[in-house]
Amino acid sequence: MNLRLSTLFALAAFASTPAWAQGTAIVVAIPPMTTPDTGTKGNESLALAWAATQLIETDLRSTSELMPLKPDQKDYYSYPEVTAPTFSKWRSAGAKALVTGFVQQRADGRLTFGCYVYDLDKGRELGRKGFVVTRDDWRRAAHKCSGLAYTAVTGAPAMFDTRIAYVAESGTGDGKVKRIAIMDSDGYSHSYLTAGDTMVLTPRLSPKAARVAYVSFLGGRPNVRIIDVASGQQRPLVPTDAISFAPRFSPDGSRVVFSMMLGPNSDIYAVDANGGLPQRLTTSPGIETDASFSPDGSKIVFESDRSGSQQLYVMDANGSNQRRLTFGGGWYAAPDWSPDGTLIAFTRRGSEGRHIGIIKADGTAEKILTVGPTDEGSSWAVSGRELVFQRTDPTGRNGIYRVSVDGGEPRKIQIPQDGTDPDWSGVMD
Amino acid sequence: MRKALLLLLMLAVPATAQRPPPLIGIAALRADFVAKTGTDTVYFGSDTATLGVPARAVLDGQAQWLLAHPDVVVRIEGYADSSDTRDHALAVGAKRAEEVRDYLVLMGVPAEQLVTMSWGKERYGVGRAVTVLVR
Known about the structure:
The structure holds 2 protein chains of 2 kinds.
Chain A: E1 26-29, H1 39-61, E2 66-68, H2 87-92, E3 97-105, E4 111-119, E5 124-133, H3 138-154, E6 163-170, E7 177-184, E8 191-192, E9 200-205, E10 211-216, E11 223-228, E12 234-236, E13 243-249, E14 255-262, E15 265-272, E16 279-280, E17 288-293, E18 299-304, E19 311-316, E20 323-324, E21 331-337, E22 343-350, E23 353-360, E24 367-368, E25 375-380, E26 386-392, E27 398-404, E28 407-412, E29 418-424
Parallel strand pairs in A: 1-2, 1-3
Antiparallel strand pairs in A: 3-4, 4-5, 6-7, 6-29, 7-8, 9-10, 10-11, 11-12, 13-14, 14-15, 15-16, 17-18, 18-19, 19-20, 21-22, 22-23, 23-24, 25-26, 26-27, 27-28
Chain B: H1 2-17, H2 26-37, E1 41-43, H3 53-68, E2 74-79, H4 86-106, E3 114-120, E4 128-133
Parallel strand pairs in B: 2-3
Antiparallel strand pairs in B: 1-4, 2-4
Helix pairs in contact in B: 3-4
């Protein structure tokens, strides 16, 4: 998984989001990617280019903002046409934007992917980007192309080249085997990070998915550990036998906030991700947990039952200026601050069950997104347009789902077994 | 001669194995603990870690037993409701276990005999704390 992406072209600065990119889904044309290679190499490259084209279609179709036209091999471009597409043809097919590009084999055995995005109405380029990847990583290069198109059209960061960590479950009842699993956000490159011999909970990815902080019952009590995804090496976050849980990385990945219990009191602490002395951020006698940084790292949202019921609170990153955020009735838990800083996702508990909701960071405009009644633990996609969460179905099976902030029916994510505790990373390098 | 000796040795093995197990095994102690104190489990109200009168009566008996068995160490396991959220449940379970521990200490049980842990909502056992003998 050691991937090296290098930027070939300077990324054309995106002009402001096109005027038509509002409201219903934007139709995007995806003429098949091409290649400058010839002979046998040319055939190989064309096969890869076609696979990449289809993956871009799948990526864009998974969003609620873009609607790709089905790529057709008859629409194949010659290499020079990539930088000079025929705008009128696609415009008459109803498309507003076009993404295409090329695949070229390099002398060192790696591949160059070039991606181009166009505004069909204005007949101008919206962005271009190039990547050099090993052959095994062609999927990630295609995800990067999808991301270029998504960001050019919507203005939001793209979540195609991101990963999801979760707890994979097999077996039933108290005999359940739980393992930390990690996969690309489209379900590929699935692997397990722990062996299943110890109870594990709540994996939390570092922003670029290089590390996972999680809770292990290895020493007999819940304790936060950190695992390096590439090497599999791991260690306790803090060398203590106190109960610790609910870890989350800071937006730059340098710090981890977590909860630790000294006696019956759960408080929030922060510590350097590489170790050191934890700094205590809360001191109330209630249960404080589930801390999450704002994207600029200056604030932390968390839950506390200091008022008598679980509610959301916001404080400065050093623990000062604590103030209550939620007053809507019901209990509010497990907050996660959105990547653009404007929203906070939460789990609301009440007599009618558990639901996923969002609220503005100033505590207004609360909106419940899921019907429940057994939903919990939401985590933002880097786009800020979607959340991943856990739902228990009526038969008691756990699954992970994604839901748009605009509402709509959640979609179940396909995983090999049952799953809980999903966490969505930022964009990888 | 050697063959006969080997046979004798083999006969000797089952004889040793038939000896009764020592009476102070952990299983026997657990059975005695539950028999003398009535139960190893106390229950809490929804989302609280406050000990009610029935729970305290159970713990009074457990404290007497533990004082009479100063070599025994127990693990107090706290559980929370499945309707709770995952991390809050861990804290509630731990708080319940701590509450039981503090009460047993108040009744004179040395803290060295008591270890606490929380299963949160990860194991079946809604709203309770269980005292498990470990050694």
